[in-house]
Amino acid sequence: MNVETDQPEFRHEPHALVRLVLLVDDSRLQRRILRVSLERWGYEVVECGSAEEALEICRDRPVDLIISDWMMPGMNGPEFCRAFRALPRDSYGYFILLTSKSETGEMVHGLDVGADEFLTKPVNANELRARIASGERILRMEYQLREQNRLLSSTLGELRTLYDAIDRDLVEARKLQQSLVRERSRRFGASEVSLLLRPCGHVGGDLVGFFPAGDGKLGLFSVDVSGHGISSAMVTARLAGLLASSSAEQNLALEEDSDGRIHARPPEEVVEHLNRLFLEELETEHYFTILLAMVTLETGEISFVQAGHPYPAIQRADGSVEYLGGGGLPVGLIPGASFEAGTARLAPGDRVLLASDGITECPSPTDEQLGEDGLCQLMVKNAAIRGEAFFEALLADVIGFAGGPDLPDDISGVLFEFG
Fold first, then answer.
1. Locate the Response regulatory domain: which residues (predicted)?
2. Which residue, 24, 46, 127, 403, could crosslink 54 as a Cys pair with Cβ 3.0–4.6 Å?
3. Among residues 409, 408, 405, which one has the least CA distance to residue 395?
4. 82 to each of 54, 85, 116, 136, how far by Cα in Å?
5. How far, in Å, CA of 258 to CA of 263, rounded?
6. Which region among 27-31, 139-143, 233-237 has the lowest average model confidence (pLDDT)?
7. Do 292 and 220 contact (CB within 8 A), yes or no?
8. How many of the other CB atoms lie within 10 Å of CB of 62?
């Protein structure tokens, strides 16, 4: 094997990606000829006379580029290439086979065992340099990809640490949000109110509650803030502070007369106040729907405002269901919006359900929504079940309709049963 030297001389600035070139040939003279050219181009060169010795070098040192003869005693070039590819390595090694063979079948065999390039003897210096330059480009791309993967892995590790910290905070936030619903049920004489709150994530935008409203009345509310997640949950916390207290100083739905007695404000005035508050004082892009109701515990009379929230459902003592209300605008969208109150009356044994749209808009596996008719059927099915047990049965039915527990929206509700 000879290197033709009648071509212009190359000058090579050593590149960090090709630190070591391994020459493998059973002819010492042929190795010497190639080595002179490679060292002139700036490469560090190690040479050996057999493939077996070359494999030992590859196990001990990070060889970047190999130039190997095809025909050698013992293990030949293709066999060496196959063994080299089987070695565990952190980076790619570029492999050039030197051969006097030019048959297509032999070239295909060389590619099959993992060779990257072929040079036909006698070796032309320009062609050898071009093949090495091609190898450098491949190694450079492989190095860049490896660096990007390393940076990606490092970034993913940092993100995982941050995610774990956020996840811990969200677990605590979920506990805090659930604490906004301090009581899941309470009896008021012969009547009972029960609550359901199930966020679809760690925290959600739904809120339910009740409060004594003076004059033998009970306030009920069901709220659904737009969006999901932390920002929606923060809005629900703010609303809980405005509605959940039994103090007139802290609850917008209550007022105190000159004698110090607590009275319920008309629901439409309360919702109009909330609308002004959101648009004028709270800097948020969120809006919310609400169903606010005042129930007279002695007579079963209900006065309510439906502001974009699903229709309240009254289930009579005989199990039949009817929906109330006329829809209305959400809160926090239109300045000066007015809200109309509706009325209804419960007889002993009747109950009213204020449910979020996470129930009526729950999709089935075929993407069909449960809808008001579906909720009506579930209420009829569970007509004999009372209190918190009703919500347990209803939630199980909704999960069954959805085909699994991973529901796409928050689920919440208020159930008032008139005794």
1. 20-136
2. 24
3. 405
4. 13, 5, 12, 21
5. 11
6. 233-237
7. yes
8. 11
pTM: 0.64
Identity of the amino acid at 223: V
Cα separation, 3 vs 124, in Å, equals 6
What is the token pair recorded at 260?
A: 């110090």
Q: How far apart are CA 206 and CA 141, in angstroms?
A: 51
Distance CA 32, CA 4 (A): 14
Nearest to 198 by CA among 207, 189, 185: 207
| pLDDT, position 233 | 80
Distance CA 150, CA 90 (A): 12
Residue 283 CA to residue 231 CA, distance in Å, equals 12
Cis peptide upstream of residue 199 (ω within 30 degrees of 0): no
Residue 359, SS3?
A: helix
- Give, for 186, the enclosing helix (H) or strand (E): strand 185-188
Q: Tell me if residue 308 falls in helix, strand or coil.
A: strand
Least confident of 5-9, 168-172, 181-185: 5-9
Residue 312, token pair as written in the block: 């309240």
Helix boundaries (H) for 23-102:
28-40, 51-60, 77-85
CA angle 170, 171, 172 (to 5 degrees): 90
395 vs 199: CA distance, rounded Å: 12
Instruction: Count the alpha carbons within 13 Å of 267 in the hemisphere toward its beta carbon.
Output: 23
Q: Enumerate the β-bridge partners of residue 47.
A: 23
Residues in the chain: 419
C-alpha of 142 from chain center: 31
